[in-house]
Amino acid sequence: MAERTSTGLLTMMLEPTPAVAMTLPAEVREKLAELELELSEGDITQKGYEKKRGKLLAPYIPQIQDTSSASEDEGSLRRQGRLATSTPYQGHGHLAVEHWFNRVIQGSSTSSSASSTSSHPGGRSVTTTNTTAHAALNANAAATALADLMAHTQLDNHSAPPDVTGLSERSSLHAERPQVASVRGVSRGYIHHTSVMETADGCEWRSEGSLSLMDGVPVNSRVSSKIQQLLNTLKRPKRPPLREFFVDDFEELLDVQQIDPNQPKPEGQHTSPLEGEPLGVVNNWPPSLPAALQRWGTTQPKSPCLTALDNAGKPVYTLTYGKLWTRSQKLAYTLLNKLSTRNEPLLMPGDRVALVFPNNDPVMFMVAFYGCLLAELVPVPIEVPLTRKDAGSQQIGFLLGSCGVTLALTTDACQKGLPKAQTGEVATFKGWPRLLWFVTDGKHVVKPPKDWHPPIREASNAIAYIEYKTSKEGSTMGITVSHSAMLAHCHALTQACGYTEAETITNVLDFKREAGLWHGVLTSVMNRMHVISIPYSLMKVNPLSWIQKVHTYKARVAVVKSRDMHWSLLAQRDQRDISLSSLRMLIVADGANPWSISSCDAFLNVFQARGLRPEVICPCASSSEAMTVAIRRPPEMGVPPPGKAVLSMGGLSHSVIRVDTEEKLSVLTVQDVGQVMPGALVCVVRVEGTPYLCQTDEVGEICVNSGSTGVAYYGLPGMTKNIFETIPVTSSGIPVSDRPFTRTSLLGFVGPDSLVFVVGKMDGLMVVSGRRHNADDVVATALAVEPMKFVYRGRIAVFSLSVLHDERIVVVAEQRPDASEEDSFQWMSRVLQAIDSIHQVGVYCLALVPANTLPKAPLGGIHISETKQRFLEGALHPCNVLMCPHTCVTNLPKPRQKQPEVGPASMIVGNLVAGKRIAQACGRDVAQLEDNDQARKFLYIQDVLQWRAQATPDHPLFLVLNAKGTVASTASCLQLHKRAERVATALMGRLNTGDHVALVYPPGIDLIATFYGCLYAGCVPVTVRPPHPQNLATTLPTVKMIVEVSKSVCILTTQAIMKLLKSKEAAAAVDTKSWPMVLDTDDLPRKKSPQMYKPPTPEMLAYLDFSVSTTGILAGVKMSHAATSALCRSIKLQCELYPSRQIAICLDPYCGLGFALWCLCSVYSGHQSILVPPLELESNASLWLAAVSQYKVRVTFCSYSVMEMCTKGLGSQTEALRLRNVNLSCVRTCMVVAEERPRIALTQSFSKIFKDLGLSSRAVSTTFGCRVNVAICLQGTAGPDPTTVYVDMRALRHDRVRLVERGSPHSLPLMESGKILPGVKVIIANTETKGPLGDSHLGEVWVSSPHNATGYYTVYGEEALHADHFNTKLSFGDTQTVWARTGYLGFLRRTDLTDASGERHDALYVVGSLDETLELRGMRYHPIDIETSVIRSHKSIAECAVFTWTNLLVVVVELEGSEQEALDLVALVTNVVLEEHYLIVGVVVVVDPGVIPINSRGEKQRMHLRDGFLADQLDPIYVAYNM
Predict the structure, then answer these.
(1) Backbone torsion region of residue 715, taken as left when φ is above 0, otherwise alpha when ψ lies between -120 and 50, otherwise beta
(2) Which of 673, 658, 695, 687 is nearest to 270 (CA)?
(3) Residue among 1036, 1034, 1026 nearest 1066 (CA)
(4) Residue 392 near residue 865, CB atoms below 8 Å
(5) Exposed site from 474, 679, 1176, 1203, fewest CB < 10 Å?
(6) What residues contact 772, with CB distance under 8 A and at least 6 apart?
(7) What is the separation of C-alpha 1257 from the centre of its chain, rounded to a whole number of angstroms?
(8) What is the pLDDT, as a whole number, of residue 1334?
(9) How many CB atoms are located within 10 Å of the residue 292 CB?
(10) Are 919 and 1334 in contact (CB under 8 A)?
């Protein structure tokens, strides 16, 4: 709808006014009228109509806008009860108006039934002009306005739009004003949402033809007869809405979380920005960082700058300021002058250069960094890529590419360790640009000449360096920092930390970015400090190393993370003589995490005895974008005492600060991160939407305005605007300052004494059902549950994913190798309880992975976004999974309540009035089809064979092919008759008429001959699939069961099978002693045949058809002689079968339509059947298609399993087949014989693959039959092509059919099941009330036809149970016709195609078997839809089947990969079913390929599978019970 409303204005522009209508050329007007007609008849969509119309009118738009300059305003210049006129209309006489109405009436009287309601908040617009105009003009304007309105009016076939006019007359006028008008996209001020027929002016039309106004001012004028005609048309709407007959209840709205009225809300004052102290003026402060380096390098060359340590903690090298200065100069000179391509210098000032240095080589990094600054190049420090597929490495490559980096600087050792290509050069990493690698070690750089000096400039706004940052989603951004910001930040840090010249500082942090870079590389040089750099690799070996170095070097300052403090606590027992008394400042650089305070407290507890003073611990808060935001000042600065806040978790989840007591579990204790940085202005703003300032007791995002923040994300102007140029506003919307603020991505508030508190980061924010939770807090809770026993402390990741319109929390941890599965589950369930009770939030999924398998961030820690990515791709390979969708998915749609059924009579009336057809259809009438069908003279099929044997004895009927494609056997009419006679002779002496005989033959002519032999002898044949010699245990019991259930007194078979039936192996599977008489028909003697048996009436039983349904029920149906003949005649007519035709059949000949096509049709119609046993395709997949091509067959039949074999087996071999001259262009119809919903994906891929061999895309279609009638639909050769529609899957669950556009969400493609056969009538009935249904409903397909089976044949006398399957009547409507119930759900739809008789064609769409549907949450689901979604969810799922077990949905998936992928599937399967079907999966069972049983027709046997699951026979790889 939205799109239509928005096009309203465009339509207004394109709507020619009456004046213009005349100026348009006649052919354009004609085309416009044609378009209107197309739209009204639904031949063109609304969008297409507007597009084409726009094109037609485009050349005239300038004139139109001239002549109707006021047309838009005019819409808005009407007041209720007044007639406003607008100048453009005054000059134009009635003529134009008349003409325009003609067009409007053409368009409107046949107005399109596409529903559309323009949604506009106001009822009518209220402004006015020129109320003193003449009455005539008033009428004219009113008419024009109405015309305009009508041109936009469409009749609405859904419900009437709600009445928002609020008029008191509404009720009294109701009788004479039908609910019609719904206005499409009229410019503002026209009527919207009025259910009364009103003009745009708020006048109402009376039928007497006078215009009376709402406020009673009469206007005397005749309304033109055209308007009257128009009104009369509108009074007779085509399809008025009928709410009472059609409750449109399938718009399942997800349950929207109701806001808890008791949730805490902020109550404090509105905050104002907080200012840091001003930046002090420092005498003799260098004008830029390179200037500082130059000063110290030349005046204090011996002064130590940086000491690097090896992995044993020994100092390897101390870089002095003199060395740093000279080496940086050398590098700068080399980069600018010695690197060239084709005599062009490779680098120009301002170019970006990647710095790739390992974490244990700070010296080389520092030289490279300052070398770039001196050369005026922009360093981009990144991590060393270890493998070609590092976590996040591709994103780094993207950053380098977008920064235009072509050169990477690195060390010799590092370069040697990088992965190499075959050429010996460094390999190109995935997603990286081509880089030139330059080693910066001494031998590669040259000394600059005496006269060369690097340019030392004052700090400017040019980019100094780019720091990379990884976002929550895993994308990498480059944050640009200017020279002036870098200098200002050094200045602010120096002032805040009280740094003095030549101080010693130990740095444990990564020197490439954030605090490690700011303190250890930049500010240190500014103040000529000495940095002791502790590499991460040393910390891993000796967590105490940093403390020992503080002691050894008497360091005044140390920069650490709380993790380093925690590690040193665990290792401190063996250290006696350490003193930390020299420290004046211990900077804790991750003040934003929940355990920094506990680490600080515990650290102080232990080390206070070793000289550590409590007041030197200085937490700070910072982010890559804003750099340092706040830091606790050292004690000598006389600052207020540190603060500590104990906050309620519940309050924080609503972004509200509520102080609580520490005894409670559900509290978060945080320490302050000190005061705002000097020279900065800080404020706290709301996280979402407009950045309003927070109240004092509200948590928000901290924003900073200062000269020392980053400037932008490199190359991302949109994101830069959001983050670096935020303008916070007060509650009344006034900007706080004229300067932009930078968002820090830190969540916090300002406490007492202007102390800043940080409670989390935006990256870790998870919004679940409107409440906010912090990933770090959830990690802290998980670790508090017996932390060290089963999982590793630092190796736990928490993130959220969006499933079903809400965030869901996922916890992933690394499990210790010695933890048993039992231990882990216990731990997992405790974690779930802890998170639930402390955070009041459910965990969606908890996964444990083997030790050391989570992707690592460069310096320890877990790469969260990469972990999430792997989880979603199914590549995490957990060893334990616990999903809890039942507890945490709370926004499922409400279960559907069944509506009380409307009475039958009102249903029919309702459908009729609503213009809905009763859903029924029929094939051509057999009686009227005159054809020279000789076989019609005979009542019995065996008589037809005898007649053919006399009339055309040598006419070939059958031809059977073997796996090599050669003819294995043939039969002409006479040969078949003779063989049948021999069988009859053998039977007549031994059996009585009416005895049942089981025919156990492989597919071939023997089967057909013995079938007719039985009919000749008056016996009832039962065709049975022979047992599989390699698989007797499962196939033989079925044979035995059919023989017993059919009460067969004799088995006819071949010698080979006879031996098999009586073999030792068979005895192991069944009781071989209880077989009835077994005769082999291989060598029957030629005797004179006695008299043939003649049945007394065609209603006598001809044969029994046994088949196992998909639900695993063995059902035999009785086919009479009359039904057999009718079936053959129907198929003959549909497929136009004559003796001169050939058809190819690749089907099993044992039951259903497959049996009829093999054994009956050729004899009846006289055509030749080329029989291809499907088993032979296992050794030669191209057998069937090659035969079709060789014999130039026009009509062929196959099964889905055959089609699948061809698609999978020959998909890559079409070229080879073409070379063998396989050509399928002869095929007119290829029909898939099925008893299920057409498998559209399979038929389409089959068509696509074999298109290259000439197969027409229109050739493939399907048939539909079932137990009560084996052939209801069959495409045949004449009718229109099969149609495909897209229906709304959500509507189907409510037994409604709603057609949607292809590709729209929740759309499901359904293909017509072939044309309804001649003589067959079909109706759609309600499964419960047994009443007929309308077109738009899904119901059971009922069928009435002369070839229906006459009943089930079962041994247990359960006929009564199923009697109504074969003779049932409608509860109302046509209550005389006898119908058979197919047990399949489907719907009928009248298409725009015409069938052979010139009538409009009715298509039958089969949706699925009623027995298989799942009733869940009051809705009806078809297993195949859920299975399709599941198979799509992961590449390793080969097959899937679903069923229900005690109201739980069980999903069984076959895993086609390594077993370590098994647990990946659990979450993906649960996600996809939740997203697409609004169902929670109860159990996920992962099994090996081939476990899901499939019958001979290629259908899944879900009930067998369910029995196997309940009996614990599936031998699963993994079973996950979702909680």
Answers:
(1) left
(2) 695
(3) 1036
(4) yes
(5) 474
(6) 652, 653, 654, 655, 687, 765, 766
(7) 29
(8) 85
(9) 21
(10) yes
